[in-house]
Design a protein that fits this description.
With 130 residues, the protein is α+β, with helices and mostly antiparallel strands. The chain has helices at residues 10-21, 25-44, 101-108; strands spanning 49-51, 55-62, 65-70, 84-89, 92-99, 119-120, 125-126.
Amino acid sequence: MERKKDSMNTHALIRLAAAKGGLTQQEMRRALDALVGAIAGELLLGNDVHIAGLGMLRVREYAPVMKYLPAEGQAPGKDREVERCLRMAGGRRTVRLYPAGALLRALSAEDRPAASPVNDKSTGNNEGGQ
């Protein structure tokens, strides 16, 4: 059975978390803004961020590499040939999520319920992550 893939925006996340946590949406927004700011600050410093039940966020750095890129001043376009030359493409930094074991197990469970929380205190399922 194929499930419809929905995405959750910030407002919907704040509404859901506020309802689950017994907070107002304004309090939850301030908490989320503070959390995102703290996580981003640590990642900018190059530090790993571990979140129990979710996983670890780690900055990955990629070295510059030689690539065939459009010649200086040319932009590729539809139905248009551009001259390509070997040039140095700058290194980049990205953030990678290494999921927690409990989250991976919950995602890969074949007979999982529709909304199964990883840390459900009512059932005693307190599988921590990393």
